[in-house]
């Protein structure tokens, strides 16, 4: 009898430890405004309420984050669709769990900033001028989309590779380059310091960034994934209902420059959803045209098999 009790206890302890291991999620992020709902989940204990132990692992660059994900040091990550496809093409076992930001009119996440010398320039004045960006990334994808919106081709600017954003912003503000592809809040900071903005990506109607999770979280009923989505949905709801309650959290975790803290808007984040097949195909088509992918990846290899 005692042996049977010990066996039952051992099984129970094994089950609890297995559940704990499944519920521990190391999630790689960048300190950008797309990730505010994740910060709310941790700040308000929403993940803990769902029985999840989620650690947000902050990286200073996308390269560091992607390297950690590829090395198996993370269980999930926040990133753009270009980076996501590259990781999956390199056999990183993850699915897109949901869209974290979709371009929304009135709330630009990226745009082409102008130097102080060119702050009032129109698109015609900028032919052949230097545009700083990071090539073969979501930045170049957006540059193509915004130039198409402006009615010019990718040949209109002289594209200059400047990978590090602080250096790109500094070169823009000192007139070393004429324009730069910048994310928010750096685009707003450039305008605050005397620069301008040529165009933003807010009305392109595309998913820009996504949250991804290791495929293990989608097995056996996908309990961890469902709980993750439940917590995230509640965070978005709270941000929608009382955005000002989270202004200070946004300032602290999303690198909002001090001069912008009081005025920079708390964005209206989308409820959990997946990118459409058409949207994902557009990204793949672009990557194939640039030689970033050798072949098309099937959607079942990329997207969550469960609708969030």
What would you say this structure looks like, in words?
The protein is an alpha/beta fold and 308 residues long. It folds into 2 domains: 19-103 and 207-301, 3-Layer(aba) Sandwich (D-Maltodextrin-Binding Protein, domain 2); 110-200, Periplasmic binding protein-like II (D-Maltodextrin-Binding Protein, domain 2, 3-Layer(aba) Sandwich), CATH 3.40.190.10. It has helices at 2-23, 36-43, 46-49, 62-70, 81-89, 138-150, 165-173, 186-192, 223-241, 247-253, 277-289; strands at residues 24-29, 53-58, 76-80, 94-102, 110-114, 130-133, 158-161, 179-183, 196-200, 207-214. It has a 5-stranded mixed beta sheet with strand order 2-1-3-10-4, sandwiched between helices. Strands 7-6-8-5-9 form a 5-stranded mixed beta sheet, with helices on both faces. Helix 2 (36-43) crosses helix 9. The protein is globular. The termini are far apart. Residues 1-21 have low confidence and may be disordered.
């Amino acid at each position: 009898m005692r042996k049977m009790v010990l066996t039952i206890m051992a099984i129970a302890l094994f089950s609890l430890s297995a559940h704990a291991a499944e519920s521990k999620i190391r999630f790689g992020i960048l300190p950008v405004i797309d990730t505010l709902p994740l910060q709310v989940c941790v700040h308000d204990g929403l993940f803990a309420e769902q029985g999840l132990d989620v650690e947000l692992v902050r990286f200073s660059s996308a390269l560091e984050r992607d390297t950690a994900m590829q090395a198996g040091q993370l269980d999930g990550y926040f990133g753009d669709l270009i980076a996501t496809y590259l990781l999956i093409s390199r056999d990183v076992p993850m699915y897109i769990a949901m869209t974290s930001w979709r371009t929304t009119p009135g709330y630009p996440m990226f745009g082409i900033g102008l130097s102080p010398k060119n702050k009032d320039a129109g698109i015609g004045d900028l032919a052949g001028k230097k545009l700083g960006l990071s090539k073969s990334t979501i930045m170049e994808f957006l540059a193509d989309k915004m130039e198409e919106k402006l009615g010019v081709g990718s040949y209109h600017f002289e594209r200059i590779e400047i990978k590090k954003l602080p250096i790109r912003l500094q070169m823009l503000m000192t007139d070393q380059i004429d324009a730069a592809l910048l994310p928010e809040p750096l685009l707003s900071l450039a305008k605050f310091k005397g620069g301008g903005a040529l165009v933003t990506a807010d009305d392109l109607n595309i998913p820009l960034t996504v949250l991804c999770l290791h495929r293990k979280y989608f097995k056996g009923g996908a309990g961890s994934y469902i709980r993750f989505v439940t917590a995230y949905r509640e965070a978005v709801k709270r941000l929608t209902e009382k955005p000002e309650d989270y202004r200070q959290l946004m300032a602290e975790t999303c690198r909002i420059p001090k001069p912008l803290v009081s005025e920079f808007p708390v964005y209206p984040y989308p409820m959990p959803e997946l990118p459409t097949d058409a949207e994902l195909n557009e990204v793949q088509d672009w990557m194939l045209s640039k030689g970033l992918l050798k072949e098309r990846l099937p959607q079942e290899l990329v997207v969550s098999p469960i609708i969030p």
